[in-house]
Amino acid sequence: MHWQSKIVDAPLAEHIPFDCLAKEDLGELERRDLEKQFQFPQSLKSQIFPPFTVQHVFCDGAGVHRIVSAFASLLRGETIEPIEEARPSEILFQAPKRGHRLDDLARKQKVHVTRHDLLMAIIAQATIKAFPGLSPTPIGFIYNFNHHLEKPAPLHNTFWPISIPLAQGIDKPHGDDQLIVLAIQVRHAVCAARSPECLELFRERYESMGPKQPLHPANLNPNRPNIQVSSSAHQNWYDISFGPGVKPYYADFHVPVIDVFAYLGWEYHDLIITTKDKEKSGFCIHGSLHTEVWRWLEHICDPSIPAPSQKEYARL
Prior knowledge:
Layout: H1 12-15, H2 18-23, H3 28-36, H4 44-48, H5 61-75, H6 104-108, H7 115-130, E1 139-144, E2 159-163, H8 175-194, H9 196-209, E3 227-231, H10 259-263, E4 271-276, E5 283-287, H11 291-301, H12 310-315
Parallel strand pairs: 1-3, 3-4
Antiparallel strand pairs: 1-2, 4-5
């Protein structure tokens, strides 16, 4: 495992605005300066001999959390037990378990959705506002089916990308009413993905693809959104201890491309990772979206921020 580091010849407070972080009020310049501290220059050696940083289990936060937790245990002088597991030769599913988390707003309207369903509904609403009349559906999610397996595999890529079929006329409701309708459709898609019938269809599709056909996004058009949401909100990232009293103060999540692509300036867009905030009272959104979608997200989350206009899009 290879970890990159560098020395910043300046007081830490000059580069990490602790007051702004505590208030969750980072400006654009402060955010760019903070992100710059976590960027490392590319070299010819890194292109020829790419370093192995972390075995990133694509869109599987549980695997990354397990690896980082094990590394933190080593830093604390503890020993870790090796993982001894046999690769499953056949996919055998167990019956899914239903969650019971409900949001207050949805409960008042007698609909059963989770807080994360509402978060995805907010992202979908911002996308619909920024790109009205989109077809096919502009949003989906990454579904990890590891817990459905008879023999779960801790560090395997057990996921499928799921597109959410938004109903016709979804742009008619407005405000909170539209959010509830979108959240219900998200919940229906999640429940459908968990059903035995859908799991069997996924299994048949997986086997028909064969071992040499990789999964890839169906739409690579950079001029329209094709958002995939991957949730790591169930992982306690800020509870990882690197030593006595040493825990993360700031965490940045993204899915980088290999060094050669990064050197050429290529990046992965429209993949969103959601996590719980440090106080576990809300959510953080990490990733790359079209600028128009970010502007609408800001307005939806804080109505005091003016809604973007088409003229503003032309300037961005």
